[in-house]
Specification:
By secondary structure, the chain is an alpha+beta fold. The chain folds into 2 domains: about 90 residues, Alpha-Beta Plaits, CATH 3.30.70; about 120 residues, Globins (Globin-like, Orthogonal Bundle), CATH 1.10.490.10. The protein contains 10 helices and 4 strands. Strands 2-3-1-4 form a 4-stranded antiparallel β-sheet. A hairpin with a 6-residue loop joins strand 2 and strand 3. Helix 1 runs antiparallel to helix 3 and helix 9 runs antiparallel to helix 10. The longest helix is centred in the last third of the chain and has 22 residues. The structure holds protoporphyrin IX containing FE (HEM). The site of protoporphyrin IX containing FE (HEM) has 23 residues, from helix 6, helix 8, helix 9 and helix 10. The site of protoporphyrin IX containing FE has 23 residues, from helix 6, helix 8, helix 9 and helix 10.
């Protein structure tokens, strides 16, 4: 459970003080940006009533805010800027996030963008054809079960935001990790895996836009490095956890 907390400060600022208030907060924001206790912050203005503002600050914890930031050398400069507006505060409290959170459908999942289940089935089918003809990887996958490509397609589909097919039919995260244990995958083999899956993505007609491919490759880098780790001599099975879900990251899809 995260210790992060969200502080909401609601202000009512008379219209004639608005410009000053905003410029004071633009300066005070420098102290928030510099504070290691501050995760992020945003000052929003009400659309229906221009006099209402809400400042949202995510802190690493309530204690870090109260005992850390407020006693730090950044605080006096912060306070000096915002002090004139303290009487205009209508609420200033910390809120703990609950489990009710999620994203809407404004941004398609990587799974939908890729073309759904069929796209991942095509991808892994092309990929394992290549793997079995590859000098470095063929020995690793010797005696591969015919359904392996379908299982990996289910896994990838789930990771990229599709239905939880792998979790429901194959045993989930722990099962996948266990399949790599003790295999002693080398860096050269990992790198070949990464190269071949990108060639397979081209041949299977997965989208080639910069945003999709960078998110796809980021996951492949992460996943293959974990595969190497868990295949090594000192790896311990991880605690049971859900299949990871990969998102677009810094570059969401371009929907012009
Ligand atoms: C993003 C990276 C990777 C993903 C998503 C992935 C995915 C999977 C999955 C889902 C399985 C289990 C299939 C099943 O349930 O039947 C599996 C098994 C396996 N993976 Fe990976 N893998 C990755 C990287 C690698 C790498 C880099 C190698 C070796 C170079 C590798 C070698 C194997 C082998 C040998 C098996 C066992 C196959 C068998 O059942 O005989 N994997 N992988």
């Amino acid at each position: 459970m995260t210790t992060q907390t969200v502080e909401y400060i609601r202000y009512r600022i008379p219209e004639e003080q608005s410009a000053e208030f905003l410029s004071a907060y633009s300066r005070a924001a420098a102290q928030l940006s510099a504070a290691p206790q501050c995760v992020d912050y945003e000052l929003a203005r009400c659309e229906e009533d221009f006099e209402h503002y809400i400042l949202r600050i995510t802190w690493t914890s309530t204690k870090d805010h109260v005992e850390g930031f407020r006693t730090s050398e950044l605080f006096p400069d912060f306070l000096a800027e915002i002090r004139p507006y303290i009487p205009s505060i209508e609420e200033m409290r910390h809120y703990k996030p609950t489990t009710v959170r999620g994203s809407g459908s404004a941004v398609p999942t990587l799974y939908e963008w890729a073309g759904g289940a069929e796209a991942f089935a095509r991808l892994t089918s092309v990929f394992y054809d290549k793997v079995l003809r590859d000098d470095l990887l063929a020995p690793v996958f010797e005696g591969l079960a015919p359904e392996h490509a379908q299982h990996v397609a289910l896994w990838l589909a789930e990771v990229f935001g599709g239905p939880p097919g792998y979790s429901e039919t194959q045993g989930g995260h722990g099962h996948m990790v266990a399949k790599h244990m003790g295999r002693g995958i080398t860096e050269a083999q990992r790198r070949r895996w990464v190269n071949l899956i990108q060639d397979a993505a081209d041949e299977a007609g997965l989208p080639t836009d910069a945003e999709f491919r960078s998110a796809f490759l980021a996951y492949v880098e992460w996943g293959t490095r974990l595969a190497v780790h868990f295949s090594g001599p000192d790896a311990k099975p991880p605690a049971e956890q859900p299949v990871p879900r990969w998102h677009w990251g810094a570059a969401p899809p371009y929907q012009g």
